[in-house]
Amino acid sequence: MSKKVKRLFEGFRPENYRLELNPDRDTLRLEGTVVITGQKTGRPSQRLTFHQHGLRIVEARITKQDKKGKRTLLPSRISHHRSFDEVRLHTDELLYPGQYSVTMRFEGTVQEGMHGIYASDYQMEGNRRQLVSTQFESHHAREAFPCIDEPEAKATFDLILLSPVGETAIANTPVQSQTEKDGKLVTTFETTPKMSTYLLAFVFGDLQYKETKTASGIDVRVWATKAQPAASLDFALGVARRGIEFFEEYYGVPYPLAKCDHVAIPDFSAGAMENWGLITYRERCLLADPATTSQSGREVIALVICHELSHMWFGDLVTMRWWNDLWLNESFANVMEYVAVDALFPEWEVWNTCVTQEGLAAFRRDSIPGVQAIKTEVHHPDEISTLFDPSIVYAKGGRLIRMLMQYIGTADFRKGLKQYFTDHAYANTVGEDLWKALGAASGKDVSAFMNPWLERSGFPAVTVDQKGGNATLQQAHFLLDLTKADSSRLWPVPLLSDTPSMPALLADRDTSVALPSHEFIRINRGAVGHYIVRYANPEHAAHIAGQAASKQLGVAERLMLLSDSSMLARAGIESFAATLNLLEHYIHEDSEPVWDIMALIIADCRRFIDVDPGLEAPIKALLRKLIQSEFDRLGWEERADEPVQDIKLRATIIALGVYAEHAAIVTQALELFETYKQDAQAVSSELRGIIFGAAIRSRVPGAFTYLLEMDEATQNVDLKQDLIGALTLTKETKEIDTLLARLTDKDKVRQQDVDHWLVYLLRSRYARRQAWDWLRANWGWIEKTFKEDKSYDYFPRYAASAFNTNDLLKEYKTFFEPLSDQPALTRNIAMGIEELETRVAWLERDLTPVQAYFSK
Ligand SMILES: [Zn+2]
């Protein structure tokens, strides 16, 4: 779909939209009127063109506002161009550049997918209820009204919304006035500042809220349906207020609007959406029920809120000119969420979480052949979903901005940002504008440092070969299939060493350094650099492993050491047996983020079970040995004064113990399952999901039905999440069929959750075959339901993440290759095949060394 689409902004520059919308959720019909005022630019022509998708323009009028007075024209013809998403208003006479206003009356639909204007279903006291909301990013505003739907076409909006009487209606700006007309509530909202169409939003429904004010007087509200407990709004409200206060101080620029609303939407495709002044969320990313939300759940909520709040400036106030710079928005927000949450909750130590959550995802994705660079051309917004790879655009991009912060220092980073916001407020930019501002503030050539990282896919592996007082350092493009690596690719690599004679950057392919002593050096301190490290001299590698064991390495470095080792194994540079040997150095590890990567290494190791089932028992035995000392230290009971990391670590250890069939852990988990049935509050929210899972794994009679009924009865999103994780562990064919059959039933599984259920089933060794058969048999339904949605390309991606054998690789190819001509799927199918081929090759290559490791 690389059809070159003309930018409509080049022909007409809107300044204001007066927009009246009447979406009816019962009939799913939309009626509206828009008056677009703006400048016709370019050459004289006989038509004006606007975006629309699925709309029917029933009436149009063009008013020329020349100096002598107005003149109104009726277009001789209105034509709808489906393939270009356009409506053209043709005139008999030539239209010269100048001021025009265009009035259009139109009809459209309330969407059934989670985009444009759409309705979410939810249950309230046993009755089906609906809430209507919008999702306009990236190019769905055109489904709601004719417009110039390009981020550069910033304009002000006067929204008049018709909604049911007795319900709440909210939008980007405060309510100016409300009346009733023909049995509908008519709300006029205050004029918005100049902004992009994709940021316009509204919500109406039967909502509850809680409110507060920032120190600077901004009204902050958190909203949810009344099906959610009121107390679940409190945590978000505090973060929402403190988040704005933090960013006003950090950026040195006031929050640009009078209010900021945060709304939990029952059916929501992404995590959240930064509509200016009206942020919408998946319920799980906003609502923290004090009775059921875990520490990790609260961390997610705080990070998502701060991510979206950072967009109120970076993205909303200053916006990328075109979608090819979307990475700029998202990479930036992805770092700022950690900067803010670290300031609000320093005891959470979220920078370590950042490495485990974002860093590892970025490295793993960015090492698959065929991965795209962060900065990639986008000709049409339809391509965005194919390029919008969260591991790259968010995670890797965020890591690079963090590396840049380290490179220029926080003070200059903030100084540069303030200038950037001041210079470009209410306007649009390209990436280079930010580098200029940060370069001017720091006196460093930021473009030269950043562009090689952004314009090339992948990352380097740096090999350190130290013999005595001399070290050579060499960089090379790292890929899981090294035969496809690009040997000409070089990056400016910050070495982050504190050995005095070491250079700050490795810009060339290699360098040789005379060291002040024979002491072994260490690079990438703090693990901020986006590259992996291999210490070639075995004594050197053993020395670093020893430093990990004795915790002379910090948390981020300990976990990166393990991650680097597993990456090197997957590319065939080392053997996975070496990774397992290294893992044994972590037997006294007590840090939660490090355990996160240890669990990931174990998950990697479990893939070998698919090729040799005989490995299951020794892998479980190794795991029981690894967890024992932490299990002894942490036990089952939360202590009032323990660090939050221990609360999370306890869950990790117990979950691993359940998998490893640790007898004491399984017995206690099953007892707690019985306790839960009597008194749900008696079981920690952190452990609840694991305990459900233990009951399912152990085939406790009645457990499956009990948990399935719980899922159907509850509106609690944390509980629902735990139930997905637990129920999909079933080993029973009939139960797996039951779960799969529910996926197409909207009343049982919300659209936003379908991919979660499916990926968990695909990843289970017991359910994989049935889930894969189901996916293939129901592809028509998947396509129909998710085609317009960002999550559509997750389906081939999830399947690729789950498979380990040559047989499934072949079936994957047979099924997905014919679907490759769908632009939304092309890239993820190609990458899925690469991912599977490299994985199958790795498992074949390392099977013998891994078998040898376990038989020793
Ligand atoms: Zn974002």
Structural class designation: alpha+beta
* First and last CA, distance: 55 Å
Proportion in helices: 40-55%
Lateral arrangement of strands in the main beta sheet: 5-4-8-2-1-11-14-13
Q: What is the overall pLDDT average?
A: 95
- Cα-atom radius of gyration: 28 Å
* Weakly predicted, low-confidence segments: none
Apparent shape: globular
> How many strand elements?
28
The major sheet is characterized as: 8 strands, mixed
Task: Report the β-strand fraction as a percent range.
Answer: 15-25%
- Ligand set: zinc ion
Total helical elements: 26
Q: Can you describe what's shown?
A:
With 856 residues, this protein is of the alpha+beta class. It is 43% helix and 22% strand. It is built from 26 helices and 28 strands. It has an eight-stranded mixed β-sheet with strand order 5-4-8-2-1-11-14-13, with no helix packed on it. Strands 16-17-18-20-19 form a five-stranded mixed β-sheet, covered by helices on one side. A four-stranded antiparallel β-sheet has the order 9-10-15-12, with no helix packed on it. α21 (754-763) packs parallel to α24 (794-802). The chain is globular and about 90 Å long. The two termini are 55 Å apart.
Keywords:
856 residues; alpha+beta; eight-stranded mixed beta sheet; globular; single chain; five-stranded mixed beta sheet; 26 helices
